[in-house]
Amino acid sequence: MEYRIGDILTGKVTGVQPYGAFVMLDEHTQGLVHISECQHGYVKDTSDIFNVGQRVEVVILDIDEYTQKISLSLRALQAPPRLGKKRRRKHYWTSRKFHTGFAPIAAHLDGWVAEALEHLDGETTHK
Predict the structure, then answer these.
(1) Which tens digit of pLDDT belongs to each residue from 42-51?
(2) Would 50 disulfide with which of 21, 34, 100, 106, CB 3.0-4.6 Å?
(3) In the record, which residues are listed under signal peptide (predicted)?
C-alpha cells in the first residue's frame, strides 16, 4: 500500500519499548510512535499508554525516503491541552498602589551623603 505523510490510519500495536511503540499498519508495513508523540505532556512509561494487540488510530508524520521507516503520532490527533487561567504574579520590589518610584531613596539620600562625608572627613584627620 502507498502511504503519504498526513494519512490517518488504524493499526495494531505489535511491540512496546521504553522509547515508543511499534504499530503494524498492514501485513508488510510497520511504523514507530515515538514516546514524544504519544500524548501531550510528559510520558514516563509507554506501557501505561500502549498494550500489545491494542488498536490505535495514528497519523503519519514522516517517511524516510532511504530506509522507508515510518514515523507515527497519536498526539497529532489529540486536541492541544487548554492552558490554565493566567495568574497575576505579585512583584514585591514595587508598589503599584502608591506609585512611589524612587521617592523613598531620594528621602534618604541627603542623610547618606552626610554620613559618607563624615566618614571621609574622619579618615583624612587620622592620616
Answers:
(1) 999 999 999 9
(2) 21
(3) none
Query: Parallel, antiparallel, or unpaired: how do β-strands 55-63 and 30-34 relate?
Result: unpaired
72 within 8 A of 61, measured Cβ to Cβ: yes
**Contact between residue 55 and residue 11 where contact means Cβ atoms under 8 Å apart:** yes
Q: Cβ contacts of residue 31 below 8 Å, gap of 6+?
A: 11, 22, 23, 25, 58, 60, 69, 70, 71, 72
Sorted by where each begins, the domain ranges of the chain are 8-77
8-77 to CATH, choices 3.40.50.1000, 2.40.110.20, 2.40.50.140, 1.10.10.10: 2.40.50.140
